[in-house]
């Protein structure tokens, strides 16, 4: 599904993510676009974010990591204040044990400290105690006693689908300390409540009677006629005569048995394809079999969306192996008889690292898994079908339904007519937890959510402004450097170094005092003035303050520190100390950059940069070469998220002309509105001059237009005319 511009709840949720710090619970029935929303946020939101999920496969599919690996969560239950000698479970972990077992390096700690947005996918499987454990870790590492340490959390999932797993031995703990294992009964929600947003529009099904049936099933409101309609699809002896059908079953061994039996029936030669693991990639998290066994005629399912961008297949699409040899696989799509030669796809196992130079959170690939994006698909478990879409399915779960499995299985299908039941659906198989209904009752009307969003935008803006004038991190860095300088031997002129570090502490304290006084003044301004009416007055005061503090940080901290640091060049055996110096200097620069990049009411406070990093401190160029077109796409993503061209040039460290050239590509493709840059009259003038000169060189056209338009504007106009088919020429070249 592509982004639907008319989906009000989609846009509302995205605005909450972009412009507030509120925790958000984004839910929706199956097929309402939750996965699409996650991808949209990952692509366009510029907040420092990480994505986690409860299971390895869910994490790989979401493009994130498991919450257990990132936060080093315990495998046993977590109860913060469990009494000593608590004997219900030997694996029980309390707060002290949790924190004592953390093995976070400096980069991980910095990453968490700079984190702005934590996305938790498939939240229906998240246990309440694990969320509390994450909350504890975030508070301690970030040194902020606020829910989630002040990090915005986006919960994505559907509680009516697969529930959290609680072992029999763990049940007494939840009965004693928690209202339920569901994430919304975590203790942290006694201090905060997420904004509840439900995506309403269903994209997977369009048959109203089937939609109504699924809604009643989801709400545990099936009536006699619903059961009759559902069980009208019961046909225990059904044998598919074509390859449209996939069997959804309750257990892995059932699915494996069906797939093996069907594969063995085929007389053709068996081929085996071994996937390639490079680097660190857990073999228990593989999205498909390490050794894929196929024959011509085998029914297969794609397990990944087409990465080429051509949308030739999607995750869950069925096909038939048409031709096969040891090197190549060609499949045929039953609905069209079209054939497609399949190429291998690559999945990445990522981790997150903090980039000190840019003060951003980057993804780092730890390992990859490469394999044909296929699996045998005569059968699949209901659990693994979550998130997939099928036109025809045989549902064979017998009496082995876990809570939510009936709904998950049925909602995978696009129509009721495409379903065949091998076992009847009985009333005792339909059971949803009443606590889910109670939690979902907190949903608010759209108008109320929009009003709340307006207020939270103001609060978020206020908090962002206040964070500009907090010097705590600088003071912590200065104190740490002082302590290490006292205790580090082999540094030149040790006593002078200690004196300098002590002086730095005093300078930071002085700046902090001035900043605190300004914050009091700022609070007074906000309280006395009507925010919407007096923005300009506040803006002018902020502009002066930002300029003042930027210069102070640069003149009193950065410049003296660079001189101080230069004396250690070439000094041996102080590697750790040199790293600390680097870290301290980066903190000073980050504060200066934070100040001069600050915005108020959607507009930057400082037009031109006040200070620049020295040549030696220019951000490091990434060694990974971008694929053709990727750089332009990255620019377009920033622009689409609301960044100005000026902002993008600073973020990407590229020339303005380069950024404008990137955007011109999207004018030519029709993805970008050209009238953001030129008027209709401008375009007509460019067209007229082009027809006269027959030149696509902006160096020729700009003077002919009396230099009224820039080279980039002319290029935009030409590309628009090309898109509309009003001119013909070679691609516009850089002039």
What does this protein look like?
The protein is α/β, with parallel strands linked by helices and 735 residues long. The chain has four domains: 8-203 and 437-446, Rossmann fold, CATH 3.40.50; 241-391, no CATH class; 468-617; 630-724, Arc Repressor Mutant, subunit A (Orthogonal Bundle). Helix content is 43%, strand content 14%. The chain has 25 helices and 22 strands. The protein has a six-stranded parallel sheet with strand order 3-2-4-5-1-6. Strands 14-13-12-11-17 form a five-stranded antiparallel sheet, with no helix packed on it. A four-stranded parallel sheet has the order 18-7-19-20. α16 (472-487) packs antiparallel against α17 (494-528) and α18 runs antiparallel to α19. The longest helix is centred in the C-terminal third of the chain and has 35 residues, at 494-528. It is globular. The relative contact order is 0.08. The model is unreliable at 614-628 and 731-735 (pLDDT under 50).
Chain-wise SSE layout:
Elements: H1 8-19, E1 24-28, H2 34-44, E2 49-53, H3 56-62, E3 65-66, H4 67-71, H5 95-100, H6 106-114, E4 117-120, H7 128-142, E5 152-156, H8 171-177, E6 195-199, H9 208-218, H10 224-231, E7 246-249, H11 252-265, E8 271-274, E9 276-279, E10 291-294, E11 299-302, E12 318-324, E13 329-332, E14 339-342, E15 345-355, E16 360-371, E17 374-376, E18 379-381, H12 382-385, E19 393-396, H13 405-411, E20 419-421, H14 434-440, H15 446-467, H16 472-487, H17 494-528, H18 535-566, H19 575-596, E21 599-600, E22 603-604, H20 630-640, H21 645-652, H22 656-668, H23 680-693, H24 698-704, H25 711-724
Parallel strand pairs: 1-5, 1-6, 2-3, 2-4, 4-5, 7-18, 7-19, 19-20
Antiparallel strand pairs: 8-10, 9-16, 11-12, 11-17, 12-13, 13-14, 15-16, 21-22
Helix pairs in contact: 1-15, 16-17, 16-19, 17-18, 18-19, 20-22, 22-25, 23-25, 24-25
